[in-house]
Amino acid sequence: MTNMPKRRIFNQPGQPHFVTFSTYHRRRFLDSPETRDIVLEVLQQRLQSQQAQCSGFVVMPDHVHAILSGNDQFDISAFMQCWKKTSSYRIKRFFVQELLRYQQLCPEDCPIWQTGFYDFNLETDEKFTQKLKYMHNNPVVARLAENVSLWNWSSSRFYELGEPVGVTITSPI
How far is CA 144 from the centre of its chain? Predict the structure, then answer.
């Protein structure tokens, strides 16, 4: 049996990263509006503290997509580790306090997130636009919303309607 090589993350300064991460075993830990809000609150805090930018996002019931970038010192791996760790802690605390049925799905030693994340560098405007449309369309494909601007946990309302979405969006297009 051969070991798969570890996928390398290329942290090009200023280049946007399309990141995806999933809940543990794709459990629907983000079914409730409150848990999706936690993910976005922590994202906004991380953006401010790391002086990073978000150009788009969507929070689905079992995964998250975002387009993130930063200055020369921006480290996507460190950013993601902190975002996932902090949101995991807050989601578990929410489950214990508010959603006892989820507490049964997620015992104390159960992680909220799968280990790692998928990172894809967006080297062209075309790739950026493709990934932005792809993630904004996720709730429609999953039949969670009739059109992209009706899903509250996405940056699509910023792009479609010019509305605030709870996370500061830096639009390169």
Answer: 17
In the chain, the DSSP E strands lie at: 17-22, 53-59, 63-69, 118-121
d(CA 70, CA 83): 15
Which alpha helices (H) appear in the chain, and where do they start and end?
A: 33-50, 76-98, 100-105, 125-141, 156-161
pTM: 0.88
Q: What are 46's strand-pairing partners?
A: none
CB 166 within 8 A of CB 151: no
- Residues in Cβ contact with 50 at an 8 Å cutoff, skipping those fewer than 6 apart: 70, 74, 79
CA distance 83 to 79: 6
Edge-first strand listing for the sheet containing 53-59: 53-59, 63-69, 17-22, 118-121
pLDDT tens digits, 81-123:
999 999 999 998 888 777 666 666 666 678 999 999 999 999 8
Task: Quote the CATH superfamily of domain 17-161.
Answer: Transposase IS200-like (3.30.70.1290)
User: Encoding tokens for residue 98?
Assistant: 């508010």
Q: Where exactly are the structural domains of the chain?
A: 17-161
Nearest CA among 84, 95, 88 for reference residue 20: 84
